[in-house]
Specification:
The protein is α/β, with parallel strands linked by helices and 349 residues long. The chain contains twelve helices and twelve strands. The protein is elongated.
């Protein structure tokens, strides 16, 4: 009986030991799986050479220099040197993408706060800080002829909550100073490309008419031609603006005059101003056909003129009999005519 009990106890102990071993194996497998998932989840795309960035150019991975970066692969936040939050590891090119794995400084509270945002999927953007050394126009399948950076050095890489467009980047000048202005970045790229173009392209021959129109010589380099065209475009835009202002002012004056003359009422101002702005002559011809509103004095004057025309040939006696008021008015306002009329009557007697 005692032997049987010892046998059962031994079996129970063996089963417990097996359970403990299996729990350990399961935990190890889960831990390894989690580590593998975390390792797979690591990695930020620093550059994708198949896409234009928000400044309108590509950065070709093959032209990158990474030696100094690998010696000190700092990971910044928003390109701020005061916000050093970790380092980059395993810098590599996969297809069109330049990728690096992030390693956060676990002793830095700010770094761990940002790490949490990355782990929870709230922060996914990255941004290169680079120094451009050469660039040119390249014909890229699917994109056409676009500016491409062909030689550059990676200075640092940062995490950024709002990347600028498809891929985000910042430029450094020859002194290692960060270029922050978007216009300055575009100008930096354009100047390098224009310099290369000037070195490689022959001058362009213009016709005499084109040269006169642009106020340049017939033989001109591409950069000068581009400047002349831009100047002409600016002059055109200025002329269009001035013409628009002139047409609007002329239309307002035309309609205002028509309203004062009684040819138009104020509620028709807007429609006639629109018409006069687009077709001044048509609006003017239409307004000219409209009758002006007559005032009381205009009506009186018209009546007087009509009456005077009806009384042509009247002698003094007929005036006195049929329109004595008019005869008195003639004596006051036109005494010479009155005297002649009276003298002619006397001469007949």
């Amino acid at each position: 009986m005692m032997k049987k009990q010892k046998s059962v106890q031994g079996l129970h102990t063996s089963v417990q030991g097996l359970h403990t071993f299996l729990d350990f194996v399961i935990c190890e497998c889960m831990f390894a799986a989690i580590n593998e998932i975390n390792a797979m989840a690591k990695g930020f795309v620093l550059n994708d050479e198949s896409r234009l960035n928000s400044y309108g150019f590509l950065v070709l991975n093959v032209g990158g220099s990474f030696e100094r970066f690998k010696d000190n692969p700092v990971m910044l936040y928003l390109h701020e040197q005061e916000q050093l939050i970790g380092r980059w590891e395993n810098l590599r090119v996969e297809g069109s993408k330049l990728i690096a794995d992030e390693v956060f400084d676990t002793e830095d509270p700010q770094a761990m706060k940002i790490s949490g945002k990355v782990d929870r999927g709230f922060l996914k953007g990255s941004s290169m800080g680079l120094h451009i050394q050469d660039a040119e126009l390249k014909d890229i399948p699917g994109l056409g002829l676009v500016p491409a950076v062909t030689k550059w050095e990676l200075m640092e890489a940062s995490l950024a909550p709002v990347p600028s467009g498809q891929t985000c980047l910042r430029l450094y000048n020859d002194k290692g100073e960060l270029i922050t202005s978007k216009e300055a970045i575009k100008l930096s790229i354009d100047s390098i490309i224009h310099k290369n173009n000037n070195n490689s392209m022959d001058k362009i021959m213009l016709t005499a008419e084109a040269a006169t129109c642009l106020s340049v010589s017939k033989e001109i380099d591409p950069t000068a031609l581009n400047s002349a065209i831009m100047a002409l475009a600016a002059s055109r835009d200025e002329a269009v603006t001035e013409l628009k202002k002139f047409n609007e002012t002329r239309a307002k004056e035309l309609v205002e005059g028509a309203i004062k003359a009684g040819k138009l009422t104020a509620d028709r101002r807007e429609s006639f101003e629109k018409l006069a702005t687009t077709d001044f002559n048509q609006a003017k011809d239409l307004i000219d056909t409209l009758p002006a509103k007559q005032t009381f004095s205009d009506k009186t004057k018209s009546s007087s003129q009509s009456s005077a025309a009806d009384r042509q040939g009247w002698d003094y006696l007929r005036w006195a009999k049929e329109d004595s008021v008019g005869l008195s008015k003639m004596q006051r306002e036109n005494p010479t005519e009155f005297a002649e009329l009276k003298a002619a009557y006397k001469s007949k007697r």
